[in-house]
Design a protein that fits this description.
single chain, mainly beta, OB fold (Dihydrolipoamide Acetyltransferase, E2P), binds zinc ion
Amino acid sequence: MMKENIGIEAKKPEKECNDEKCPWHGTLPVRGRIFSGTVTSTKPSKTAIVKWNYHYFLKKYERYEKRNTRIVAYNPECINAKKGDIVKIAECRPLSKTKSFIVVEVLK
Ligand SMILES: [Zn+2]
């Protein structure tokens, strides 16, 4: 059964899935931080590598430096984010050694 609300602001996916680890159709609760970024890879399957850039101020040089963050997120079947998509990811309990975020919505 699909939840109406997963506790954060996100649009419901159109597809259904039977995934335990899906925040919409499974039992995985999401909590904590929320980010959005661009999917740079969807390998291995059900995984999305999400990246975004930010500017970091260096006091010593009095200028900004471009940095980026890379997060490995779980990509549930019903959402199925593709490379190049802009997605919203939310923190959840650790799903594996590197995954503690999950894709909750494709924004674009
Ligand atoms: Zn699902």
